[in-house]
Amino acid sequence: MWYHPRPDLSLKPALEELSRRDADIARAYAVCGLPETRNRKPGFPGLVRIVVGQQVSAGAARAIAERLDAAVAPITPAAMLKATDARLRKAGLSRAKIAYLKGLARAVEDGALDLDAIARQGDDEAMANLRAHKGIGRWSAELYLLFSLRRPDVWPAGDLAVRAAVKRLKKLRTVPDENRMDRIAEPWRPYRSAAALFLWHYYRHPGVTF
Description:
Blueprint: H1 12-21, H2 23-32, H3 44-52, H4 58-71, H5 77-82, H6 85-91, H7 95-109, H8 115-120, H9 123-131, H10 138-148, H11 160-169, H12 178-185, H13 192-204
Helix pairs in contact: 1-2, 3-7, 3-10, 4-6, 9-10, 11-13
């Protein structure tokens, strides 16, 4: 499954601390409560899910991921390379994403992309090594660290939903750019991952209007 629809209790201490620091988070947290869990498996399957989710809605990404699970089972580099482009297109992948996923599968197979090693690296080094591969930009690398590796202080400042949520949370006139997002989130260190997860939750919550 894409994620399990239950509250992520592991975020409670971080969100309670953020609520003590930031009155706006405290107000929103009182309305929205804990986010649902959204963990993805580390390794190649988790990276595939993130690429699938690039530039599509969450609903579309889930649907494509379910079709891909059926078309390529299990999702391994070898199985991805064996799958025909026609089968992957039928699952809903664009030509660009097929090329990205097959390129990443080859990189894992030949050792150029060592996801086990990346899991042991610091955030900056891991980000750089992920972004060295075509199809993995800042957003995708950040999401891999956040969802698959569960790093505690990742801040996806360019994510459109997070930016919209910060605009609403802070009652800003315009959607903040990445520089302003970084400034706003600076006091949230070292809990920016929890803040990001909460802001996605806040963005989707039925009790919040935009």
